Amino acid sequence: MDEAAAADDRGDRGRARRADVPGAPPGQRERPVDELAAALKERVYATFTGLAIVLVQHANVEHVSATRATLTLLVGIVAITAAGFVADVVAHLAVHAAFPDRDELGRMLRISGSAIASAGVPLILLALAAFGVFELEGALRAASIVYLVTLGLIGYVAVRRTHAPWWKQLLGLGALVALGLAVVVLQQLAHGH
Questions:
Q1: For 16-63, what is each residue's pLDDT tens digit?
Q2: What confidence score (pLDDT) does residue 192 get?
Q3: 68 to each of 74, 81, 134, 139, 141, how far by Cα in Å?
Q4: In 107-116, which positions are buried (b, 16+ CB within 10 angstroms) versus exposed (e)?
Q5: How much is the pLDDT for 6?
Q6: N or C: lower Cβ tally within 10 Å for the chain?
Q7: What's the pTM?
Q8: What is the 3-state secondary structure (H, E, C) of the chain?
């Protein structure tokens, strides 16, 4: 069996290609490209989830306290993070017919844990509202803007990395924006708003 097939059998597919992680400690600067892609995907899921939570609370701001809004967002993001981790474990069990080893489990935790980062600034804004620094409505509006800007920047960077002609990048970004808006509308419809 050749080395590539052996690596695939161990679940190491994609680890040969590595990417530098800016700001990481020197020994941890390189992460597999597949791991970076999976972590970004989890962060996008969590960003959409956080945006939906914030928009629903904003629509019902007169019935929600700032403390409850903060806790709801925190629990929602932790829940999607946990769901991502459980999904990875179940998928590994189904595909490999074995429990993940220590390294694979660590990789799964890093990937799913990246979703929590998506709520950093929105949680700070809502916590400040809970402490009376901001009005809840303004904090929810600001949190939704943070989420929208985050999604927009991720889409922009993704499209720019293609090195396609400018008009194809513009079309691609437009398609991503349209799909993102469709996701937000569907999430709002699911919550009856």
A1: 454 554 444 555 557 788 888 888 889 998 999 999 999 999 988 999
A2: 60
A3: 10, 20, 15, 13, 16
A4: bbeebbebbb
A5: 43
A6: N
A7: 0.77
A8: CCHHHHHHHCCCCCCCCEEECCCCCHHHCEEEHHHHHHHHHHHHHHHHHHHHHHHHHHHCHHHCCHHHHHHHHHHHHHHHHHHHHHHHHHHHHHHHCCCCCHHHHHHHHHHHHCCHHHHHHHHHHHHHHHCCCCCHHHHHHHHHHHHHHHHHHHHHHHHHCCCCCHHHHHHHHHHHHHHHHHHHHHHHHHCCC
Counted residue by residue, the chain has a size of 193
Closest CA to 51 of 192, 180, 138: 180
Give the whole-angstrom CA distance, residue 182 versus residue 176. 10
Burial tier of 81 (Cβ tally within 10 Å: 0-12, 13-18, 19+) = buried
The strand pairing partners of 19, in sequence order, are: 31
Any residues with CB less than 8 A from the CB of 104 and at least 6 apart, and which? Answer: 11, 92
